[in-house]
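Journal club prep — side note

Before the paper discussion, L.F. wants everyone to see what a predicted structure for a comparable chain looks like in token form. Sequence:
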Amino acid sequence: MSADPTNHIPSGHPQHAAGFSLLEVLIALVILSVGLLGIAAMISTTLKSNDSAYMRTQGTALAYNIIDRMRANQTAVDNGLYNITLPASASTAANPTTCTNATCDSTALAVYDLGQWEYNAARLLPQGRGGITSANNGGVTLVTVTLLWNDSRAHDSLQKSGAPTATTFSLSVSSVL
């Protein structure tokens, strides 16, 4: 009798190893899936952190903007017209247009500048609001600009690092304006 050629097992391949490569592929897919989920979580955290950094950049630009406006209107600074307290909530006022095409005195310009600044803080920062204090001490003016905004998006992604839900940014400038 001759042996059946279809039942022949080539030498070097044991019969009990059949299907082993399928198990290896399934394990590799599970490992790959876990890795891709980790990468997706890392990208999400990175995007939220970048958003928080963007908000800090906006806060810095807003603080320097109002300080530059104050330098241009020294009379109003000397009279304390730029001093405002930090409000309890963000401004909902419309963008002021008082001094855009008209000549303004120092008082009207200070009101316009503060209106523009508060409008931009509320527009550019989530629940953004700010306060300004200035004090003259022997010809040197100390200006402190404080901005506060909701940074809960970064807080939610960075809870382990203790990120605050509200971010306060203060900038103090001491100079002869």
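L.F.'s comment for the group: Residues 84 and 101 are 25 Å apart (CA to CA). Keep this in mind when we get to the figures.
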